[in-house]
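User: Before I run my own analysis I want an independent prediction to cross-check against. Here's the chain; please return only the structure tokens and, at the end, one sentence I can use as a sanity check.
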Amino acid sequence: MLRDCGILPFRTSLSLISVTIMALTACSSISEHPEWFDAIHRTPIHRAVVDGHRIAYTDRGDGPPVILVHGFAGSMWQWEYQYPLAASFRVIIPDLLGAGLSDKPEIDYTPTQFVEFMRGFMDALQIPRASFVGNSMGAGIVMGMALTHPERVEKLVLIDGLPDHVREKVTSPSLQRALGPWPPLWVVEMANWFAGRGTTRSVLREMIYDDRLITPAVIDRSNRNRHRPGVMKAIRGTVKHLPLWEEGFATRFGEIGQPTLVIWGDKDAVFPPAVGVDLHHKIKASEFELIPEAGHLAMWERPDVINPRIQTFLKP
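Assistant: Structure tokens:
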């Protein structure tokens, strides 16, 4: 992460940014002959209005509602391989406020705001009660829902979820840098604008264990997501308010009473499996399952294993 260069002239700062980006991208290349073909899902995008802000989401199936919540700096596409669950459930996948195709308003992006956004999203769709599946920070949000609005939550599935003491437990170099300290926002936004595909690939390699899955199409999609206007400000706000997570919801895991399934990739390079085991032990009504050959986005990487497990666990 670039440090604050406030005492340097603008051109010098820009030059330093450019050199850093070139160094990050020089050693990366994209294969012209990938081993995987990325299928295109023609899934209609819906819009809901929550507290005056437009939220993009997909909605498939007619069974009991299940809401899938992506993680930090993510978007709905990370759940693209969970659509088969719509054969048994109503599968709803939003882009969180400040992410993907949803609005990115001038708010603080605190943990409580994310939880209240989720409650408002349920109200907008007239869903009184649902099960939740969350990945990473999304798992933190759904745990917050279970603690704040337990009457709205049927069951929880936490995939490589957000623990307590995040800064001490995170092992991903990219996320360690993202957790701060941050330079001025204009520096971050400019660096993000100029950063290339190699930078995106290096970050994805910390999230995904099987390198063959990081195809040119996946990199392009990730690039488009992080270049959307306003996204870096939302990410920065989320990081800034991490202490509120540590002081609030992270101290109350033991109060979660809903049936909970904790799923962890055995190759998770963001939070090692021992972090998942610890989270499982803190949630009394929980089960734990380790997924082989999977990283931090285990549901995206191993849907063949995870989807049947989710379906069995959430079955009424």
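Sanity check: Residues 157 and 261 are 5 Å apart (CA to CA).
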